[in-house]
Amino acid sequence: MKRPVRPLTPRAEELLADRATYGTDESIEAELRALAAQDDTTFDEAAAAIEMSTLRIEPMPGHIADRIVAQTPRDVSASPRVVSISPEKKPDFAPSTPPETSALPWLAAAACLAIAASSLVWSFARKPEMRVVTLPAPPAASSAATQVKPPPTLAQERAEVASAKDAVRVEWSATKDPASRGASGDVVWSASMQKGFMRFVGLAPNDAKVGQYQLWIFDKDRDARFPVDGGVFDVASNGEVLVPITSKLRVDDATLFAVTFEKPGGVVVSKRERMIVTAAVKSG
């Protein structure tokens, strides 16, 4: 029988046992080739030997035995010998070779059968080899990485804009409109960031169903009749209020900020009938 070049691995033994017991397919043969065990026939021979040992050999019918004896050539120089064959009794043939010589092939086959059978039984009976692989523990995450950073507040964003090199900050000036009576605050704007904030203190709260406040930004390079819309907003209390500027167009050189009171949702072009507060940027 053929032996593998190197000792069989537990997986190879398992595949060879499956092939000998249930048959083979392309996936089993491919894996056996990868394990260099495709030519090992130990398990196949053991399975065949076990199967042959369970076969039941029926006695030969008498008429067939008589026909075989009748057709067997005999040595004319030898004395004739009458042989009686029956299904229950073995034919009394004289062996043509010495007993010890004819028994050798059977003894060799029995030895092979014992070796292959013991290998097959050992393969099925042995416990599968278990491998324990210890994986390295993942690095502990830092507390700073696991904490979710909260979004900045409006005050923090306003401070960031105010710290820009090109930031401008101007105070609000109240008008004669009743809504601006006692109002104060300022506006901060950065052209490089295109971002800004309005701060109000004492501005009258509004009812959004009646009307809303709207910011207008006058740009030096634009027609003063059509200032840039800076967004519509509401005021809920007369305390301090921070409102982000939402400019609809780019403003490169702001000269004036003005807040009007318009219909709900705002307007495209203001008639400036109710001017609430203004903040002029000093040139130079």
What would you say this structure looks like, in words?
By secondary structure, the chain is α+β, with helices and mostly antiparallel strands. The protein folds into two domains: 10-74 and 81-90 and 103-125, no CATH class; 154-280, Immunoglobulin-like, CATH 2.60.40. Helix content is 30%, strand content 19%. It contains seven helices and nine strands, in the order αααααααβββββββββ. The strands form two sheets. The protein has a five-stranded antiparallel beta sheet, with no helix packed on it. Strand 3 (184-190) and strand 4 form a beta hairpin. The chain is rod-shaped. The protein starts with 9 loop residues before the first helix and ends with a strand. 18% of the residues are buried.
Features of the shown structure:
284 residues; alpha+beta; Immunoglobulin-like; 5-stranded antiparallel sheet; 4-stranded antiparallel sheet; 7 helices; 30% helix
